Amino acid sequence: MKNSLKILITNILVCVTLLAAYVMKAQNLIPNPSFEILKACPTGSGQLDLAEPWEAILTPDLFNVCSESVTYGVPQNQTCNYLLPQEGDGYTGMFVYNSHEFIRVTLTDTLETGRRYYVRFFVAAEDNCGATNIPYATTDAIGLAVKGTGPIDNFRVVAQNRGTVISDALKWTKVSGCFVAEGNELIVQIGNFLDDDSTLIATNMPQVPNTQQFNYMFVDDVLLTPFDPFPDTLLLCDGQPLNLNASFYDANLQWLTGETSPVLLALDTGNFVVTATIDGCVMREEVTVVNFSYKDLMPPDTSICKGDEIRLSPGIPGRYRWQNGDEAKTITISKPDTYKAVVSNMCGDFNFEQKLTNEDCRCSVFVPNIFTPNGDGINDLLEIGLGCDYEYIPKQFRIFNRWGGLAFSADNFLAIKWDGNQQGKPAQNGEFTWYLSYELIYDGRSRLIIEDGSVTVVY
């Protein structure tokens, strides 16, 4: 086996990467979360579809600063309502009592089985404009549900306001929660998932039947994100300390060490655990910190037996790019060649070059092509020779006549020789076919090798 692996370090970002905090911004899986990316400005009712990719169930409305309508503008709308956006330039509104409207959107990615997610959105009540002669109702019932795309998948409510009527028309009220994903969720829907009899209602005219009461709510700044501040593994580049930044919105953080700062300095390798508490949700994340040094990555070039395959990988965490464009961390190869990969990680960019050669690992097999079992003491027995550079185990030697009949068989063929007899009788003159098998041990691996040939019996 030849040792010629070359590891070329082209760009090591030590000063930037090692001394700075490692920060991963939490990913919001809700597209257009503040309803401000528009195909056009709203001019009338039921125009939520202008805020792609949101979809409407019934006719929820869209409000934006770009609207020239006094009814669908921001911050003033609905004649007397004055409500600044929680985030961005717009928001949506819908009925949640008697008439149940919903807004729906497809997430940017399917949720991961077993991972804990945090969800949050903001709601506000519609102003009643000081009217005293018409019913004005507020309720407690609005929530967010998730579901998969399958035909039998149902919505699962994962965040819901219950027990407290939302009546503030000037400030936003946060509704939040956390849940463990089942793994196929891709659709989010917001609205009142309770029936009216289960909804808590407050009204200025209780004498009016509930069937004539309506509640309208505004919604803005929708968030659904995993608590995933770190990848599974982080690197101490050449043993340099690393700042672990677990900042997550307004969460209170506590490390397993007892520290409560969002940033923890990792001085050594090991497993680091942080717990985040936010809005009654408790979420836990663990990251493994390992030492990374290119000086330790000096395995030899590789040689394999002809016909064998080998799985090749530099074994370094990071993003891979092989010379053929493949981005897999491990490739399976058998052809002699020089294989190159660039691996990029938080410690820099690393160029790898590994040479694969083939060796003919077969043993040298000697079986005479003629033998004369005539009892003259010369060449009366068929003897087999086997020469190997590597460890081997003899398996079986078999001889067949021209019609396929078995003439001879031996497991210990180096010790047992054929005397030319077939089933106790001298074999006929002519050509016989032989097969020989042995197990070859090379580089810690074993493989079964079969050789074949012919021998002519002459009396």
Give a verbal description of the structure.
This protein is mainly β and 459 residues long. It folds into four domains: 6-11 and 298-359, Immunoglobulin-like (Sandwich); 20-25 and 229-292, Immunoglobulin-like, CATH 2.60.40; 48-226, Jelly Rolls (Sandwich), CATH 2.60.120; 364-457, Immunoglobulin-like (Sandwich). The protein has one helix at 14-18, and strands at residues 6-12, 21-22, 55-57, 61-64, 76-77, 81-82, 90-97, 99-100, 102-106, 116-125, 137-139, 142-147, 156-161, 173-180, 187-191, 201-203, 215-226, 233-237, 242-245, 252-255, 263-266, 270-278, 281-292, 302-305, 310-312, 319-322, 331-333, 337-345, 348-359, 364-366, 370-371, 385-387, 391-400, 406-410, 421-422, 425-426, 430-442, 445-457. Strands 4, 7, 8, 10, 14 and 17 form a six-stranded antiparallel β-sheet that branches. Strands 1, 24, 26, 28 and 29 form a five-stranded mixed β-sheet that branches. Strands 3-9-15-12-13 form a five-stranded antiparallel β-sheet, with no helix packed on it. The longest helix is centred in the N-terminal third of the chain and has 5 residues, at 14-18.
Summarize the structure.
By secondary structure, the protein is an all-beta fold.
